Each structure stands twice: as structure tokens, then as C-alpha cells.
TrEMBL record:
Source domain of life: Bacteria
Provenance organism: Sinomicrobium pectinilyticum
Protein name, entry field: 3'-5' exonuclease
Keyword Hydrolase recorded: yes
Domain (Exonuclease) ranges: 35-209
Length: 219
């Protein structure tokens, strides 16, 4: 059930206060100096209120490199089950993963992992809204991180032309195919996060050729 009354700041749990503390550190202006966390969520469906996060996958990008050794992947215990979405992500309620954790524990670990990084996702509004809705259920504020969407960034990276539809929304599959990126482990949170990170790096390379070197210019 949603919390309709916002807690006082002093009533927030320690893990949220530690997360907020990260944002007191001044970020560096350069793209290569910035820590990005590229993420993806798998969910029971697409309704922000009634559906739930099944898993969160994320990889960090620092100095134009994906740190494979620091991959984040967590599975969330849940009771909501949508047979339609199983066709996409393959996560069944009956799987009962022994490493699955409760929603609050999953959010706590994700906040500790993300810190004050710039978050990157494909069609980011969906993933971030699902996480923010989970935070709301816990009586916590929204994420404080800045967010980049690879679909929008890809459009910016393309050569300027009157033939380009700047309102087109690209799927992750379309970008992977266009940028010659293998689609291994597609439709798992960690797999999609890794593919998105590869897409993100190729987009950054294109934008760098356009003279974009500062983090502020990506927004």
C-alpha cells in the first residue's frame, strides 16, 4: 500500500540516508570521469501500480569501459504473476529462486550499488518509474540520479538530415542490429543491461566526434 504521508527526513532508513550522502560529493564535468550505471528491469507487466519488479540488472561504465567484474543482478520475491510476460523474460513464479530477496532488500542493494552515478537505460522512463514506484511503496522519495535514455541519445548521435525522424522511438533490438552488437542473453535484466551498455558506448563514440566531451552536454 502506498504511503500517503511523506516521512520526515530523520525517519528514513540508514540505507536511504547513505544514498543521499553520495550526492554531496561534487561530480566531475568530463564524460570519461563520470561513473554511469546502465540498468534494466524485468517486471511482471507494464502497469506501474499493479505490476512488480522481478529482477534488476546493471553494469557500470567508467572511462569508456564496462566493468564486467562489477555486474549487479538481483531477483525479487513476488506474488504477482502475469503469464503473458513470461513469454518475454521467462521468469516464472514457480521458479522460487533461492537467491531472491524481498523488494526492500533489492532496492537497498540497488541504491548502494548505484550511488550518485548517472543512470542509463533504454526507454528509461519505464525502468525508472518502476523503481520509483517501489520506492514510494516503501515511503521513500524518488531516485536522485540524473538519467540518460539510449533511444534519445542515439537520435542525437545521427548525422543531421531532413530525412531523419527525430521523434522515432528505437527498440533495443533495432539499435543492437544497427550498431552490430550481438544480442546474447536478451530479455534478462543483466543481459539487456550489458547490451544497452555496449549501445551506450558506441553512441558516446559518435557524440565525441561531434565535440561532446562534457557530461552536461549529454542532457
Amino acid at each position: 500500500m502506498f504511503s500517503f504521508f511523506q516521512k520526515k527526513h530523520t525517519e528514513y532508513p540508514d540505507y536511504w540516508l547513505a544514498y543521499e550522502q553520495d550526492f554531496r560529493h561534487k561530480s566531475k564535468p568530463g564524460i570519461t570521469d563520470t561513473r554511469f550505471v546502465v540498468l534494466d528491469t524485468e517486471t511482471t507487466g507494464f502497469n506501474y501500480k499493479s505490476d512488480r519488479i522481478l529482477s534488476i540488472g546493471a553494469v557500470p561504465v567508467i572511462q569508456n569501459t564496462i566493468s564486467i567484474a562489477d555486474v549487479f543482478e538481483i531477483y525479487v520475491k513476488q506474488d504477482t504473476f502475469n503469464p503473458e510476460t513470461v513469454k518475454i523474460h521467462g521468469l516464472l513464479r514457480e521458479d522460487r529462486r533461492v537467491d531472491a530477496v524481498g523488494e526492500e532488500e533489492a532496492i537497498r542493494r540497488f541504491l548502494a550499488y548505484a550511488g550518485n552515478a548517472v543512470l542509463v537505460a533504454h526507454h528509461a522512463n519505464f525502468d525508472l518509474t518502476m523503481i520509483n514506484t517501489a520506492l514510494k511503496r516503501l515511503g521513500l522519495p524518488r531516485l536522485k540520479n540524473r538519467v540518460l535514455d539510449t533511444s534519445a541519445l542515439y537520435t542525437r548521435s545521427r548525422i543531421t538530415s531532413n530525412l531523419i525522424d527525430y521523434n522515432k522511438s528505437y527498440t533495443l533490438d533495432e539499435l543492437a542490429d544497427t550498431l552490430n552488437i550481438a544480442k546474447n542473453d536478451r530479455h534478462t535484466a543483466a543481459g539487456d543491461a550489458y547490451i544497452t551498455a555496449l549501445v551506450f558506448l558506441k553512441i558516446l563514440s559518435r557524440l565525441e566526434k561531434k565535440g561532446i566531451h562534457k557530461i552536461k552536454d549529454l542532457f
